[in-house]
Design brief:
With about 270 residues, this protein is α+β, with helices and mostly antiparallel strands. It has a 5-stranded mixed beta sheet with strand order 4-6-7-9-8, covered by helices on one side. Strands 1-2 form a two-stranded antiparallel sheet. It has helices at about 15-70, 75-105, 120-130, 130-135, 155-170, 225-235, 265; strands spanning about 1-5, 10, 115-120, 140-145, 150, 175-185, 190-195, 240-245, 250-260. The chain is extended. The structure holds adenosine-5'-diphosphate (ADP).
């Protein structure tokens, strides 16, 4: 309502019924989509979880068969059984990693609430978990002072463990040399893990973050192709992103960004 020049009042009406209807329809669609996603995650989680039990049984009996009938079976039968055990072991690894992937997509569980955590101590935990691999490969891991970030500690540890673990696995001829650095970029903190490993051709840079996407056969490098997909899921939970700069044979730098400020962390409430 506005005063008019002649001393009267001008009244303006805006038709908002249509807009309200569209907003309500969008809210409904979003809610349906969120529920469908949650159902799908729950289904995938239960399926992966329940599949592991019969798989354990197959493995157990194959191993028993091979041990108990060692004398009765010829070399070719023994070899076939060992292929079975190997296949079961790999499938168990895939299911385990798939479960982990689904778990990071689910709402925050115990110990997963976002608070300002020290990345330095998360890196220390990851390095302690990788100690045997670091010793075995003769790797050197250096790092700059790292900031505090609004994340769950388990997620930051997992990021470091997956990225540094890959630097050790995809190493070149020289002993692995890994450097972890941090920089601010506007409202974001960017953490980078640089290595001197085999590198990745630019054509594959996006591909490596997909689930089960691998650039090498399992006979060359073991793995399930889920590690980087988990990293992507984790940083996306916090509104960040992850990418790689690399050339084949020239080492790789994996970087992820996380917003420096997060109200959820400040209030100590559950993560996304
Ligand atoms: P996995 O290691 O189990 O195969 P990841 O999701 O961790 O699964 O990695 C996907 C693919 O990305 C790997 O198979 C590998 O080809 C490539 N990759 C990941 N990290 C590196 C790295 N630091 N250097 C070179 N290649 C890498």
């Amino acid at each position: 309502m506005y005063p008019a020049k002649d001393g009267g009042l001008s009244v303006f009406y805006q038709e908002i019924t249509g807009r309200k209807q569209v907003e309500a329809a969008m809210r409904k669609t979003n809610e349906a989509l969120r529920r469908a996603n949650a159902d799908l995650e729950q289904f995938a989680y239960s399926a992966s979880h329940d599949l592991r039990e019969p798989l354990r049984m197959v493995r157990l009996y194959c191993e028993l068969l091979s041990r108990r009938y060692k004398e009765a079976l010829d070399a070719s039968a023994q070899e076939m059984i060992s292929f079975c055990v190997d296949g079961v072991r790999r499938m168990d690894c895939l299911l385990n990693d798939l479960l982990e992937y689904i778990r990071v997509s689910m709402p925050a569980g115990p110990g997963e609430s976002a608070e300002f955590i020290s990345l330095d101590s998360c890196l220390a935990v990851a390095l302690a978990n990788l100690r045997a691999k670091i010793q075995e490969t003769g790797a050197t891991v250096t790092h700059e002072p790292l900031p505090k970030l609004p994340m769950a500690a388990v997620h930051a540890q997992q990021l470091f463990q997956n990225l540094i673990g890959n630097s050790l696995k995809y190493r070149g001829a020289a002993a692995p040399s890994v450097h972890v650095s941090a920089r601010e970029d506007g409202d974001l903190c960017v953490i980078s893990v640089r290595d001197n490993g085999i590198g990745i051709a630019p054509a594959h840079h996006d591909q490596v973050f997909g689930v089960f996407k691998r650039l090498h056969p399992a006979s060359e490098y073991s793995g399930s192709g889920v590690g980087l997909a988990i990293c992507k899921k984790i940083v996306e939970r916090y509104g960040g992103s992850i990418w790689v700069d690399s050339q084949e044979g020239m080492g790789s730098t994996f970087s992820f960004s996380v917003p420096l400020h997060d109200e959820r962390a400040r209030s100590g409430s559950a993560g996304p």
